[in-house]
Input
Amino acid sequence: MTEFTLPRRTALQLALGSLALPGIAEAQQAQIDPLLYGPTPENARRGGRITVGSLVEPPALDPFRQAADARIRVSPLMYQGLFFEDQSGVPRPLLAESATAAPDGKSWTFRLRRGVKFHTGQPMTSADVKYSYDFMRNAANGSPGAGDLSSVTSIDAPDDFTVVFNLSRPNAALPMTLTNKYGAVVPRGFLDDANSGTRMNEISVGTGPFKLKQFRPNSTLVFERNPDYWQPGLPYLDEITFVTMPNSAAMAVGLQSRRIDLAMFSRPQDTQALANAQGVEVRRWPSLNQKTVDLDCKYNNLGDVRVRQAIALAIDKKTVMDASISGYGTVIGTIVAGMQDAWGVPLDQLANQRVDLDRAKALLAAAGHPNGFDIDLTTIIGYDWMDAAAVTIAEQLRRINIRVNIRKLELGVWIRNFRAREMGFTFNDWGTTPDPSLLYYRHFRAAPEGADFRNWNHARASALLDRGQETADPAARRAIYAEFQKILAEEVPTIMMFSSDVLTANRTRLKNYVQHGTGWYFGLVKAWVEG
Amino acid sequence: MTAWRLGLVLLAFFAVLIVAPGWVAQQSPFDLDPARALQPPSAAHWFGTDDVGRDVFARVIHGTRITLGLVTLSLLIATAIGGGLGIVAGFAGKWFDLAAGRLADMVQTFPPIIAGVMITGVLGPGAMNLVLALAVIYVPTFFRIGRSAALAEAQLTYVEASRAAGFTEGSILVRQVLPNVLPVLVLQYVIMFPLALQIEAALGFLGLGVVPPTPDWGAILEQGKNFILVAWWMSLWPGLFVLLSAAAMTLIGQGLREKFGR
Amino acid sequence: MAGFLARRLGAAAIAALLSSLAVFLIMRAVPGDIVGQMLGQSGGDRAAEEALRAFFGLDRPLWSQFADWLGAVLRGDLGRSWYQGRPVGVMVWEAFLVTLELAVATLVLATLIGVPLGVVAGITQGSRLDRAIQSFNLVGLSAPVFWLGLMLLVGASAALDWSPPFAWSGPQEDLADNISILVLPVISLAVLQAAAYSQFVRGLMIEELGKDYIRAGRAKGLTPAELYFKHALSNVMIPLVTFMGLILVQILGGVVVIESLFSLPGLGRLILAGIQGRDYPVVQGALFFVVIIATTINLVVDLLYGLLDPRLKP
Output
């Protein structure tokens, strides 16, 4: 249990130049990347059904207009974007076959895969791709992903299997943006109906390996094999049933009694109950998620950078991690664990990472709070790790005389405050698609280009984020983001504490399930069951 | 009568825990140490430790004051407001009775947990908001009891006699009706206590109760539910304490009912 | 009688209207709306928020939103779920059937356990058996239902290596699965209600057995069986039936936590999920339905009471 199941693939492949995407071929029938969705198994058996236990359930299945993580987890089974967000940081062509950026970086040309059919039976062409992404980037349609496409000025479809995205300024992260978090390619015209969003709870209209069979809210979600799927031989499973489980103890019980075949645990130590269970494997995967403390620079005394630094210097991330997730994770500095090797700055080169109470007290005194102050720390109901982290941090901050009152918020209220840039001093639990621009831009770029939820409004950091998005050369890009991270650590608008490992448990009859670091169920496409 | 005595003994036991929890549990309910997390019951930690290494015995013992205090307070508020309005409604009648009656009908049609979720949704979770939510849920019960008791009193001859003797309505209400209705409200208070305690624990279990690190039985149960397979002690003891205190009040309620001749 | 009925119906209608208005206002007083949930913590901008708000009519004045909703309800239309797109009436009815099955199964089990226990305890008042039954009653009345459910789930897993399937199947889909799903939640709920039942019946029996006609019957030489079952039990039937109505209302109101604990797609979970997701039509429609059901049961119980016992006729 101490070793990761997957060796951390590093980002040598990250040599993502404008032309260096893997799998690019001008041949008529491009080969299909064997690493799409994860490693291809040998001797896989086709057929069989499995049941997956999940603590969360999507409120609805519309990939364009529902941002809930529970929705994103299952959408990739039915819907596909142009690229697959490989954990290593490489966007692997999915519905696209190749990607070419213009020399000035202001347009990207994507060749599309042939022979792809929608679940409705229609063949996919460039017109569908243009339609789908035009819909998504129009703010009036209310897609949460629109902001990531703000640099797109128009989309052209010069022939049936080519699309061109024209940009107002270069965007090196565009392929990684056209992945599977928000939106997808759907048949043109489908979204014209005002009720198309809720229609997608009844039928799936994507190109993915599974079709929606039945969605019964507060209970089950069933997918069946798409017989016309374009990756030969895939998927292996006939049917997948997701069951909404009440709590992680019930998931463990369900695995032991063979009611469910697979479960992902939101709090890793909850798998301890399965350590000695017969016929159940518990596996541990690196994640693209992070647990943070966010500091609203307009709240309380947090506008003073010295106060923020003092707080950072008083928090012992390792102890918080041990208390809240029993140490099943990695302490981080300024980037999620899954991207540290490719993009991160070593923690010893970042400011404010080591506990230093004397300096913290001196900073507080200099900021005019020699006797400390009172502050509310927000946790979210249902995020179990936060309660333990909150009492630990309250204890740590008391050592520099900051008196913490813990307050709990219901998720909907918390989201409202966050979006209104009134987050206060709060825990946060968020993940990313593996590209630094997608990780940082919306959160830390000053308004109006970014959302700047923490009211940080930092000019130099914003300039770096703009340049990072525009720069194509990998080495130059990496240097830009390293500089940005140093500012982030110095300025402390957020304290990124740790990435919690993703823990999955499965009945041993389920084979080749590989968990993606986002927590999304890409791995089910290549999973199979013994007869 | 033995049941009544058992109830009093249990009540005395909980009273000690409320007045002097530190005298019973020597350890702090707040001191945490991840190094000793999730330890089973032992001589050092009678009820084991929780996921951040706090002593569960200390948390349960100190939780007595919190949990029972919240229920006591919320029912007191419900009795004062509900009972008071009910007495006035029963005694004065007319439009006030009608309006208050409809309002009570309205509140009472909501399942208690749903009402609790909605009220804490507006106010936000927290001890005082939980008290308010529970109070609102039980106001109609006490309103009805107070109203029917006052209604019965108002028809008695002594009230008529007082009126004839020139006492004002207000003074009849306060000096004569109230003392006679009060025992009925007290009995109802005791009867409602176990029910309100269950709702309080259930709301805590849904995460809508007190904020950490306050020890509250429902909150400890909520915290323990995910660990129940590896650390049953986090769930067993607070549950048993809810059970025992509810039983104490049930027994006392039965005893009181017999004493009052039902 | 007709006057009484009219008055009660009028009062019920006013209560339903008031509570609908209260639900409407409370839901809007809870901070955050569906738009925030759809866009997530970081997605979309002001323009997207405004577009979605307009789509759901949330940009219109409150009074007009409520008037529209009420008007539709009076035409028999509870609207559609904002997430699901399905008619709220259908969703509420499906969820109600789950809750009703749970409640009826609980009621049956509680009656089967509670009534005999109460009768026996009443007949053998003061005996050791009576005391044992009273202890059961006390524990049953005092144990938190959700705690009992949790303990049962863990106990069944440890002792029998068994767990419920968690995926819901209705009785008409797969009866065996349906029973497997319901057995633990029904037991958790029934313990409380059986205890309440048993306590109630015991009191009735003791009261009844102390009456003159029983003493007279004893003197006449009737056998205990005739006394207890022919006379005493048949006399306590009336309060028993009304108590059943009360218990049903109590179960229907108390299943929320048990539904959550066992992943049952019942009415309580529908409402909870609706509140969490700010799906106003679902919350308003479901609670409107709950109010109507609760009021109806209360009315029926009162009417039955009046019919069965002429002294109580209003």
Q: What stands out?
A: The domain at 3-9+45-260 of chain B is CATH 1.10.3720.10 (MetI-like fold). DSSP finds ten helices and no strands in chain B. Residues 63 and 243 of chain B are 14 Å apart (CA to CA). The two ends of chain B are 15 Å apart (CA to CA).
